[in-house]
């Protein structure tokens, strides 16, 4: 199934990736050619749910997405497997639904012919597998996860599944889509009394999530600017991912929850670089490559701030797993539920 909402700028692509034919049930590269012509230059979302299909069709879709102007966000609704997972990697931003999965494996085919022909087919499959592994490795590296093509080739041979959290950790996704939660209960007291007690209780017992300050600190901005200046002067330290992160810290003023997790993960892994020569000003070789890379990600200020924010996020996630009744943590909330139920029942019974 392939549907395009031009007004909402959303493409819904579900089913097998296949060549176009009469009665087609999945979606093809031709479908995307036509859709992109109508959405040229627009920021769009593509919702995908596919177990894969024909590699050549999938690579054509991948190339179209990668080449188009306008930002493309792909949302994995349930599964993006096989060549559908490759298509997903072309997006500017990849969002996984909370229970969605990615699946990667070696390409395979059906062939007929003699021994020489089969050897040629096998060589082609090996070359194709390396091209696909490079897609995963490139995406992973863009999110600060350093893995080589051979690592991804092995994961493909092992036929690997990634849930949403695993995809994030592997650098294959940028965000996990989670249900929105209420931040206050006051609005419930202003609702009309026409809803059932069950609807009222369901709303009021949704988890209450505190607001977390996701802004970067002045110290992080100072470190990021220093890192960029050092890198230009000494021509060493960090990667393009680090440069991108430094510019993000300086420019945006606030980072997403997922980006804060990446900042903390990177700095925690590279804290050992502080022991290297040239990390502090009184040592030869200062600033070392490790010191420059450390600065690009916000330095000590970024490490302490990201650790604090990640701790807060983990506490919130723990709270989200608590049974709903546990959210009724104050007498005021419980009283509001009972009072509203009481008034509704009195109205239904005609009691003034």
Descriptive report:
With 352 residues, this protein is α/β, with parallel strands linked by helices. The protein folds into three domains: 2-177, 2-enoyl-CoA Hydratase, Chain A, domain 1, CATH 3.90.226; 186-207 and 322-348, no CATH class; 218-316, no CATH class. The chain is 49% helix and 12% strand. The longest helix has 28 residues, at 115-142. The protein is globular, with a radius of gyration of 26 Å.
State the order of secondary-structure elements, H for helix, E for strand. EEHEHEHEEHHEHEHHHHHHH
Share of residues in strands? 5-15%
Mean pLDDT: 83
Reading off the top of the CATH hierarchy, the class of the largest domain is best stated as: Alpha Beta
Shape: globular
Radius of gyration: 26 Å
- Give the count of structural domains: 3
The level of helicity is 40-55%
The number of strands is: 8
CATH topology of the largest domain: the name is 2-enoyl-CoA Hydratase, Chain A, domain 1
> What class do helices, strands and sheet pairing give?
alpha/beta
CATH architecture of the largest domain: Alpha-Beta Complex
Total of helices? 13
By CATH's scheme, which homologous superfamily of the largest domain applies? 2-enoyl-CoA Hydratase, Chain A, domain 1
Q: What distance separates the N and C termini? A: 55 Å
Oligomer: single chain
Poorly predicted runs of 5 or more residues: 181-208, 321-334
Main pleated-sheet profile: 8 strands, mixed
